[in-house]
Amino acid sequence: MERQLSQDLERLKANLIRMGSLVQQSVSDSLEALLHRSEANARQVLDRDEQVDSLELEIDEEVLDLLALRQPVASDLRFIIAAQKINNDLERIGDHAVNIAQSAVLFAQRTFRTDMLDMPVMADIGRTMLREALDSFIRLDPALARSVIIEDDKMDDRNRVLSSKVIEVIRRDPEALEWGLEMIRISRNLERVSDLATNIAEETIFLTQARMVKHKSESDL
Amino acid sequence: MSMEQPIIETRSLNLFYGSFQALINVDLQIQDRQITALIGPSGCGKSTLVRVFNRMNDLIDGVRVTGRVLVQAENIYAPSIDMIALRRKVGMVFQRPNPFPLTVAENITFGLEVHRSLPRSEFRRMIEESLKGVLLWEDLKDRLDAPALGLSLEQQQRLCIARVLAMKPKIILMDEPCSALDPIATMKIEDLMRELKRDYTIVIVTHNMQQAARASDFTAFMYLGELIEFGETKSLFRTPRVKRTEDYITGRFG
């Protein structure tokens, strides 16, 4: 006979995977909207956000019920705690996708400079980190999770470099100010997406190895 | 884990009921004035182990013990051991409250008459002290001559603990002390255990894992006569080191 708790945990995991794919889709759509000046894609992200928010609440409720009714311990308990944090991380990633989509709408409507600097590469890194963080969680793969955490530094560097390039452009061409502010905003949102993907990877390591890896340097991982 | 001298220590402890081996090579150290819970599925040896600590198993025919069991550094299976002193030092509380069919006061003084050479004038003080120790004095001070069997089950169990306290023990063994009690009474006994640990070492056998998690400082998980894992309760329930412990406490077997 299967444990009731196992069934509950399977359902929780299925909902998290659903949440993960919704948010992944939003991040992809928002970047697509930005890089291809597609307002339609951006609108999809804005419309989807309500779905993301209500699924977040649903998962929160499930977590509360599990804690209140099933008295989980050991790996079950770690899974539920990790699930709650990942749920929260995903919802915030969804918000960053919304921010990027709002910028994408401006890019589609205004006659901004077409120059996107390093943004396509950053978009790629962000998308990949999120995908791999979610994969590491679903497959309980700590090695993959570790590679996501290491990737985060690259994103931080590119965010800094992009910001200084934008400032250079604005210095030469003050007309580019609005473009520049949007670029910096998008870059910062992408950088936050990668931070949150890193959190998900850390939760995966906590889950698989019962080890806290937050706030540890790379060599300790 | 504390490096203090353990109050109970077993070394390579084996126990046989005839040809059946109920305990296999148990090495365990129980810390003074802590609550240690023994958990594991039925038949794992947890009740047998707790009954080693005051040699209650001696009452069963065909029991054979090898290895060493030290209580306050004294080998309690040495031929020279004073059994009366041992049972006084290591008191026991059972699954079902088992007060004597006497009055409340007589339940406390019965052991004093048998075991301790106290002047009778001291009895009254011991009754009060023991009942206060289990937070029963206020409820019963005007009913000391009432029959103990008329008390609620929870009060009966408290009285049984008071009866043990009157012997001035160091260690209190509790074998499923709450299994006959409702959840509220159970919680009150757990609160009492926390009070008592200031002065006594408590070893509790329970098959209620939530109780072990709630009420104990250390937990020992036993399976088929072996001690599988022993450690601080919070780490055992958060991150057990042994797969079999994990499977048991998460309800995957047992």
Description:
The complex is a heterodimer of chains A (221) and B (254). Chain A has helices at residues 4-35, 39-70, 74-109, 119-138, 142-172, 177-209. Chain A has 221 residues and is mainly α. Chain A has one domain (4-220): Phosphate transport system protein phou homolog 2, domain 2 (Methane Monooxygenase Hydroxylase, Chain G, domain 1). The longest helix of chain A has 36 residues, at 74-109. Chain B is an alpha/beta fold and 254 residues long. Chain B has one domain: P-loop containing nucleotide triphosphate hydrolases (Rossmann fold), CATH 3.40.50.300. Chain B is built from 10 helices and 10 strands. A 6-stranded mixed β-sheet of chain B has the order 6-7-8-3-9-10, sandwiched between helices. In chain B, a hairpin with a 2-residue loop joins β9 (218-223) and β10. In chain B, α3 packs across α4 and α3 (104-115) runs parallel beside α6. The longest helix of chain B has 14 residues, at 183-196. The mean pLDDT of chain B is 93. Chains A and B meet through α3 of A and α8 and α10 of B.
Please describe the structure with a list of short key phrases separated by commas or semicolons.
heterodimer; A: 221 residues; Methane Monooxygenase Hydroxylase, Chain G, domain 1; 0% strand; elongated; B: 254 residues; alpha/beta; Rossmann fold; four-stranded antiparallel sheet; 10 strands; 35% helix
